[in-house]
C-alpha cells in the first residue's frame, strides 16, 4: 500500500517529535542515528515472530533453488543428487553400524563374532567412502555454481540501477533501499549455499530418524528432546541479527561515506587545507560509537540466546542417556540398540546443528535477499515510461509547452510553467542566477528528468511517443557536475558516443574541438594514460583539464542537440575561447543549448532565455534584451563593470 505525500509528511513530523534533538550530553543527535519514517515499515517486517521464520523457510529454499537453476542447471542437478545420495548413505551407515554391534554383542567366541560382523563392516566402509565422495562432488559443483549465481544476481541489479529515472537518486529512501539491495546480491550466493547445506543436513537428519525408528520406535522422542533446544536457539539468534541489521541502514551508509572522505585522494587536499581531520574523526566516533553500542547489545542478546539453548540441550541430552540406561536396565532394548542410539543421537545432533545453522543462515540471507527482490520490485515505479516507436528523425523543432517540475524535498517548483520553442541550427542560451531552474529545464529537454506537468515535443511528436534509444542518440549533454571516470583519456572522451570507443580519428577530432588534444598528448602515455591516481601510472587532471575532456565527450556524438551546462567555468581564457569557437561553428546547422554565467559568451546566441526561480522572465537576442530594462541587462552590466574596473586598475 502506498502512502500519500500528506501521510508521509504527517509521519515525518510524528517521528521527529518522538526523537529528542539533543542527546544526554547536550550534543545534537545526528540524523543518521534517528529512526526515520521510512524505516518503521522495515522494522515492522524484521519484528516478525519465529513462526514467520519457519513458514517462510519453504519459500526461501524454493527461491534459492530457482536462482541456482537459472544460473547453472547442470551444477544444480549435480548438487541436488549428491545431497540426496549423502543422506541415503547416512541411513545405510547407521543400519550397518547397528548390524556390526549386534554381531559383536552376540554370544559366542570373539573370532566368530568378528567374522560374523565382517560383511556389515564392509558395507559400513563402502557407505562411508560413498558418502565422502558425494561430499567432494557436492563441494566441487557448489564452487562452480557460486560465481555464476553472483553474475546472475549482480547483473540483474545493475540492469535496474542503470535504467531507473534520474529523479530516483534524489530520494534518500531510494538510496537506503539500494544499499540494502546491494547487500542482497551477496546474500543470493549465501542463500543458495545455505539452502543446499540445509537440505544436506535435513537429508542426514531424516536418514537418522528413519534408522532410529527401524532400530527402536521409543528412541525417536529421545532424539527430538536432545536436538530441539539448539535448533530454537540458532533460529532465534539469526532473527535477532536481522532485526539489528535492518535498523542500521542509515548508519552504515553514513559510515561508508565518512570512511571514503577520510581515505580518498579526492577529499585529501580540502581535508588538510580546512584542517577537517578532527571534525571528521569526531563524526566517525559518534556514528561508530552508536553502531558499536548496538552491536555489543546484539552480541549480549545472541550469547544469551545460544547459552540458554546450549544449557537446555545439554540437560536434555543427559536425560536421554539416563533414559537409555533405564531402558537397558529394565531390558526394554538390547545393548546393541542402546549403543546405536548413542551414535544416532550424536549423528542427529551434528545433522541438526547443520540444519539449524543453515536455517539461521537461510532466514538471515533470505531477508537480505528479500531486500534485493523488494528493491527490484519497488524500482519498477522509478522506471522511465514505456518506449514509443516513432523515429524522431533529425531535429527540426523542439517545443516545450507549460512544463513544470518540483523536487520532492522542496516546496517551490524548480521549473514553473515554462513554454518555449527551439529551431534547428539555433544556439540557445539559458541564463539566470543560481537556482533559477536552468539546469533542471535542460535536463527535462534532454529526457533526464520527467516534468510533473506539460509536454516536450520533438518535431511535433511528444517525446513519450518516440523511440527512446534513437531520440537520445540525437542528444548530447555536458553537465556541470561531470563524473571523472577512472578510465584512459581516450575512453573518457569516447564514452560520449559508446558506439565509437575504438574510433581514434573521431576521438582526436572531438578533443581538438574542446581544446583537449594537445593537453592529452602531453600526458605520460598520451591518450592511453589512465586518469585515476589510485592505480599504478595513473594521472590526476586539474579541474580545467577535466572540463576539456568532458567537453570533448559532448562533441563526440555530433548530436542534433548539444546541451552544455557551464562548460568553461574552470577553463583558462585561451581554452575557453577555443571551446566557444567550436560551439559557434555549430550555429546554423546543429542546435546548441548553452548554460553559463559568463554572459559575454552568449552574445552570439540566437535566443537568450532568462529564468528566475523556475519562471521564464525574458527572451530575445542580446541586443533586444539589452535594450529592454530587465534582469538580463542588470546581470550583463554588473559583469561588464567588473571587467571595466579591472581594466582601469591596470
Automatic annotation (TrEMBL):
Subcellular localization(s) per the UniProt record: Cell membrane
GO molecular function: ABC-type oligopeptide transporter activity; ATP binding; ATP hydrolysis activity
Main location: membrane
ABC transporter domain span: 398-638
SUPFAM superfamilies named in the record: ABC transporter transmembrane region, P-loop containing nucleoside triphosphate hydrolases
Topology of the protein relative to the lipid bilayer: Multi-pass membrane protein
Transmembrane intervals: 77-96, 116-141, 188-215, 308-329
Domain spans labelled ABC transmembrane type-1: 77-364
Entry keyword annotation includes Magnesium: no
Keywords: ATP-binding, Membrane, Nucleotide-binding, Transmembrane, Transmembrane helix
Pfam hit, one: ABC_tran
InterPro entries: AAA+_ATPase (IPR003593), ABC1_TM_dom (IPR011527), ABC1_TM_sf (IPR036640), ABC_transporter-like_ATP-bd (IPR003439), P-loop_NTPase (IPR027417), Type_1_exporter (IPR039421)
GO cellular component terms, semicolon-separated: plasma membrane
Protein name: Multidrug ABC transporter permease
Species annotation: Rhizocola hellebori
Amino acid at each position: 500500500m502506498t502512502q500519500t505525500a500528506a501521510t508521509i509528511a504527517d509521519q515525518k513530523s510524528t517521528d521527529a517529535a518522538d526523537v529528542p534533538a539533543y542527546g544526554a550530553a547536550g550534543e545534537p543527535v545526528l540524523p543518521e542515528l534517528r529512526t526515520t519514517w521510512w524505516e518503521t515499515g522495515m522494522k515492522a517486517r524484521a519484528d516478525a515472530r519465529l513462526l514467520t521464520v519457519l513458514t517462510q523457510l519453504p519459500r526461501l529454499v524454493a527461491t534459492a533453488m530457482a536462482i541456482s537453476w537459472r544460473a547453472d542447471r547442470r551444477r544444480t542437478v549435480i548438487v541436488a543428487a549428491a545431497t540426496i545420495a549423502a543422506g541415503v548413505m547416512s541411513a545405510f551407515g547407521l543400519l550397518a553400524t547397528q548390524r556390526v554391534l549386534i554381531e559383536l554383542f552376540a554370544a559366542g567366541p570373539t573370532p566368530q563374532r568378528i567374522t560374523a560382523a565382517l560383511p556389515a563392516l564392509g558395507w559400513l566402509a563402502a557407505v562411508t567412502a560413498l558418502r565422502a565422495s558425494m561430499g567432494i562432488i557436492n563441494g566441487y559443483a557448489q564452487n562452480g555454481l557460486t560465481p555464476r549465481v553472483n553474475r546472475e544476481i549482480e547483473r540483474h541489479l545493475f540492469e535496474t540501477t542503470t535504467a531507473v529515472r534520474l529523479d530516483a537518486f534524489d530520494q534518500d529512501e531510494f538510496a537506503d533501499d539500494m544499499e540494502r539491495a546491494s547487500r542482497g546480491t551477496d546474500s543470493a550466493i549465501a542463500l543458495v549455499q545455505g539452502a543446499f547445506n540445509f537440505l544436506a543436513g535435513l537429508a542426514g537428519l531424516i536418514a537418522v530418524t528413519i534408522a532410529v525408528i527401524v532400530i527402536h520406535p521409543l528412541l525417536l522422542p529421545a532424539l527430538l528432546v536432545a536436538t530441539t533446544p539448539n535448533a530454537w536457539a540458532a533460529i532465534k539468534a539469526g532473527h535477532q541479527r536481522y532485526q539489528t541489521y535492518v535498523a542500521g541502514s542509515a548508519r552504515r551508509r553514513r559510515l561508508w561515506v565518512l570512511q571514503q572522505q577520510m581515505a580518498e585522494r579526492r577529499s585529501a587536499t580540502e581535508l588538510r587545507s580546512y584542517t577537517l581531520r578532527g571534525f571528521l574523526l569526531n563524526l566517525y566516533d559518534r556514528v561508530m560509537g552508536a553502531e558499536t553500542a548496538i552491536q555489543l547489545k546484539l552480541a549480549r542478546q545472541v550469547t544469551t540466546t545460544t547459552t540458554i539453548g546450549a544449557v537446555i540441550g545439554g540437560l536434555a541430552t543427559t536425560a536421554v542417556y539416563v533414559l537409555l540406561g533405564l531402558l537397558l536396565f529394565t531390558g526394554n532394548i538390547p545393548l546393541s540398540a542402546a549403543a546405536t542410539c548413542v551414535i544416532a543421537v550424536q549423528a542427529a545432533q551434528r545433522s541438526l546443528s547443520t540444519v539449524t545453522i543453515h536455517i539461521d543462515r537461510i532466514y538471515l540471507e533470505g531477508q537480505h535477499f528479500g531486500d534485493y527482490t523488494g528493491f527490484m520490485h519497488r524500482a519498477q515505479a522509478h522506471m522511465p515510461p514505456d518506449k514509443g516507436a516513432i523515429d524522431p528523425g533529425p531535429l527540426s523543432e523542439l517545443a516545450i509547452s507549460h512544463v513544470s517540475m518540483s523536487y520532492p524535498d522542496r516546496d517551490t517548483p524548480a521549473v514553473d510553467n515554462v513554454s518555449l520553442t527551439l529551431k534547428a541550427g539555433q544556439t540557445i542560451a539559458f541564463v539566470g542566477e543560481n537556482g533559477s531552474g536552468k539546469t533542471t529545464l535542460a535536463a527535462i529537454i534532454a529526457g533526464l528528468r520527467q516534468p510533473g506537468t506539460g509536454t516536450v515535443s520533438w518535431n511535433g511528436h511528444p517525446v513519450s511517443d518516440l523511440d527512446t534509444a534513437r531520440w537520445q542518440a540525437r542528444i548530447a549533454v555536458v553537465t556541470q557536475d561531470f563524473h571523472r571516470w577512472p578510465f584512459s583519456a581516450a575512453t573518457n572522451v569516447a564514452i560520449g558516443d559508446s558506439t565509437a570507443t575504438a574510433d581514434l580519428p573521431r576521438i582526436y577530432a572531438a578533443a581538438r574541438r574542446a581544446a583537449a588534444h594537445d593537453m592529452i598528448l602531453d600526458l605520460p602515455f598520451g591518450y592511453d594514460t589512465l586518469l585515476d591516481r589510485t592505480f599504478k601510472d595513473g594521472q590526476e587532471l586539474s579541474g580545467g583539464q577535466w572540463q576539456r575532456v568532458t567537453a570533448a565527450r559532448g562533441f563526440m556524438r555530433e548530436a542534433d542537440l548539444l546541451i552544455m551546462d557551464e562548460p568553461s567555468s574552470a577553463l583558462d581564457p585561451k581554452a575557453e575561447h577555443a571551446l566557444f569557437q567550436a560551439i559557434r561553428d555549430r550555429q546554423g546547422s546543429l542546435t546548441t543549448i548553452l548554460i553559463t554565467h559568463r554572459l559575454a559568451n552568449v552574445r552570439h546566441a540566437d535566443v537568450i532565455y532568462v529564468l528566475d526561480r523556475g519562471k521564464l522572465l525574458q527572451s530575445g537576442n542580446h541586443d533586444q534584451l539589452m535594450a529592454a530594462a530587465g534582469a538580463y541587462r542588470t546581470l550583463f552590466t554588473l559583469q561588464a563593470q567588473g571587467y571595466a574596473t579591472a581594466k582601469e586598475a591596470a
